[in-house]
Please model this.
Amino acid sequence: MSRYQAFPRLFTIAEARGLLPTLRPLMKRIFECLDLLRSKSETVIRKEGIEPESPDLLNRLQKDETVRDAMAQLESLVEEINGIGCVCKGVEEGLVDFPCMMGGEAVFLCWRYDEESISHWHGIQDGYTGRQPFLDEKGKNGSSFH
Model:
């Protein structure tokens, strides 16, 4: 990926770690929304006899005010995280990536909600399964994260 890839913001490790006190409560609220959505959706599906594989399932669920409001709140929380310059991925897993430059290459610093700090990175195309731990604050091959 080009060194000039357009990201709204590039983070250093320290900057990304500094955002965790802001991100943790947002992710906690995301999980609360997801729990409410699961619970309320199951209730609506049972009550109205909706088939879970129904092509109009989402439209029918959104007729319920609680479901509609929870979905809007979830979307707003994800937009708030993305608005900081992070990339909110895998909301159910609580994944947030931080664009970063490492040795002239764009990569993501990677954090999961249940992790105390940011200690992994992965290539832009690699995703969570390609996560690698920091070797040190300089990263792979002695290249600094910027």
About this structure: The chain is about 40% helix and 15% strand.
